[in-house]
Amino acid sequence: MSVTADRDGGRRAATKAANRAAILDAARAVFAEVGFGGASVREVIRRTELASGTFYNYFPDKESLFRAVLEESAEKVRARVQTARRGARSLEDFVAAGFHEYFSFLADDPEAFALMRRNSGTIRAMFDEPIFGAGVDELAADLRTAMKLGIVPPIDADYMAAAMVGAALEVGVAMIQREPPDVEGATRFATGVFLGGIERLGR
Asked: Is the pTM of this model over 0.90?
């Protein structure tokens, strides 16, 4: 391959990545403002500098775009939550750290907050999607590691991970309905529920 072809290929890849990012940024704002039901591909593209037909080079429809927006947010929050959990040195820290990071992410990021608030029903309907499954799998793996370290007592990691991720979603939805969102209260509640449950199951 010539240097020119290699340079052109790199430029095209960079342009494609920039276009996709522009569409995702615009979509996040539209979904946060009007919700999935009220959003349209036309409105998303209107907020970019791209031609209307460009959208379909990156996404087949509005639903796939919504999934991509959720995946991007999920990757960010999963990284934060996982880092917090892995720094825990006690069972209470392990449980509280993950919930606190997740609830803080929702409260601290205005767009993530609005996205969840406007689209909670649509997000619930997609709970069995790989977007959420990755978070369950990561938590199950962290639970197993914490069990080996003696931080978490022996429990069914798969059941517990599914329960904790599901609860985080629902408590997070309830939290953002409050003015202002009560991160500390939501963390205390979820931690209390699961701390007691894990201790009892581990006896």
From this structure: no
